[in-house]
Amino acid sequence: MVGTPKPPIKIGILGASTIAREAMAPAFKRESRVNVVAIASRSARSAQALAHTLNVSRWGPGFDWILADPDIDAVYISLPPSLNAHWTLKSLQSNKHVLCEKPIALNVNDVARIRACARAVSRVVREVDMWRHHPQIRRLHDLWRRGALGQLRSIEAEFTFNLSEDDRFRWSRSLGGGVLNDLGPYCLGAVLEFCPGILDILEARFSWAGNGPNQVETAMEATLAAAGGITARIFCSFVDTPRQRLVLRGADDSVTLNQPWAVGIDSEQPLPVHLVRGARTERFGEFDPYLMMLGDFAERINGGDLGSFALERCERRVALAAELQLCARRSQGAT
Ligand SMILES: NC(=O)c1ccc[n+]([C@@H]2O[C@H](COP(=O)([O-])OP(=O)(O)OC[C@H]3O[C@@H](n4cnc5c(N)ncnc54)[C@H](OP(=O)(O)O)[C@@H]3O)[C@@H](O)[C@H]2O)c1
To answer: How far is the centre of ligand 1, averaged over its atoms, from the C-alpha of 335 (Å)?
Structure first.
């Protein structure tokens, strides 16, 4: 029996950010199970510009007016990282479902608070993880799960680019900047995905820029050991040529993804996505992982699937980031 279709989920946007404009807006336009009805940003001008793009009639400065509206079912939060946990919690306390940009929180206690609150109010919370929704990651998962690579030996996760000097928050420690918060969610997320057990940090080296409260990490290089003799290497940088790579090496075969994380943001010039397995190359056509993720969010809300596993995953990643930070500071004698 076919059920009655649910009305679109009414969404309010908190933060008219670049990523909201460039990656999420096209997905919001295409996903019929959601309907953006209001846009809030720090400045009215940013909110208005995004409202114009999405053809939304309600926009304005400040965020509380969206949370106070009982007609809005869910929010998409896209703010500097230091604000994400605060507004996720406030949104949950206002009974909204939440899709929040990464990183959803900067410490484990905040992730735990978000989990407890989501459970108490029975609302769905997801951190943006569009990369997991791309078919290349699903394919990699499938190969790994059914043992096509043999015993996993090593994993390498790399994400680098040259950050412009006038970036708004990535150079600011108080706003949650730094490469660990910005690119860590991808590389640490992938390592934890394929090394689910306990990880020991063998080495962690960071580079920093700025001083005191404005000091942020600009690069991070780490080697970890996982159960079963797996070695994981991570490299993230704000001061390097743009590069993305995820490699899984097994006893029988290896797989390399040339563009594992940010796919489809530049829709005018989509880069080809390859999965190289031994001597074979699998190509993936144009695909919008943000749209898939949004569809998944809508499906979970409509199906009442709170799925706390996603927040458990965030908790592990945030804990690992903190350990890496501590380990690098100790070994490099930084304060
Ligand atoms: N999933 C992905 O592919 C992806 C990619 C890039 C970034 N991100 C994440 O998305 C979020 C936004 O990143 P972005 O690069 O798109 O940011 P952005 O363009 O710099 O925009 C940041 C937004 O936050 C607001 N804002 C800035 N400082 C604020 C403050 N002190 N108080 C309140 N609001 C403030 C800005 O408001 P006004 O414009 O109104 O001033 C703007 O709407 C971050 O959490 C980032 O990690 C995700």
So the answer is: 28
Residue nearest to atom 5 of ligand 1 (CA): 19
Whole-number Cα distances in Å, 264 to 34, 172, 290: 20, 27, 8
Instruction: Retrieve residue 294's tokens.
Output: 């949004």
102 is known as an active-site residue:
yes
Q: Which of 35-49, 146-160, 214-228, 261-275 has the lowest mean pLDDT?
A: 261-275
Q: Measured from the CB, is residue 15 less than 6 Å from ligand 1?
A: yes
pLDDT tier for residue 97 given thresholds of 50, 70 and 90 = very high
Half-sphere exposure of 173 (CA within 13 A, CB side): 11
218 lines ligand 1 (CB under 6 A): no
Residue ranges of domains in the chain, CATH in brackets: 9-130+293-310 (3.40.50.720), 132-287+318-332 (3.30.360.10)
Which of 22, 24, 43, 78 for a ligand 1 pocket mutation test, highest count of atoms within 8 Å of Cβ? 78
Mean pLDDT calculated for residue range 107-132: 96
CB atoms within 10 A of CB 29: 13
pLDDT in tens, 238-255: 999 999 999 999 999 999
Burial 156-167 (b: 16+ CB within 10 A, else e): bbbbbbebeeee
Binned at pLDDT 50, 70 and 90, residue 268 comes out as low
CB 59 within 8 A of CB 47: yes
Q: What is the model's pLDDT at position 5? A: 82
